[in-house]
Amino acid sequence: MSETWTYICATGELLPGEMRSGFDEVTGAPIVVFNHDGELYALEDQCSHEDFALSGGGAFDPEAATIECVLHGARFDIRDGRALCAPAYEPVAKFPTRIEHGGVWARDDRD
After folding, report:
1. Which of 6, 20, 32, 39 has its CA 20 to 30 A from that of 65?
2. Tens of pLDDT along 40-58?
3. Total-model pTM
4. Residue ranges per domain, the chain?
């Protein structure tokens, strides 16, 4: 588990309805952070169905709080990572976020 927080972007670069991606500095896990009506959510930036980045052309629907993988159409709830439709059945990992020193931070907190 990483105790080191990873800087994703400045707070002003992640407006409501937007997403930004980065990599955990310790574990190397890809992370995508979403701004959903001012609340920040972070998921592993990898579809649980296929090894493909959710942020790589994926459709973030801010109203529904979902991200759709562009590869095969699997959708996930950005608030908890759960899979919402086939072909994905497994959730994607959810990570903690925080705002500090004018920046958006996230980390891979898995054991």
Report:
1. 6
2. 999 999 999 999 999 998 8
3. 0.95
4. 6-106
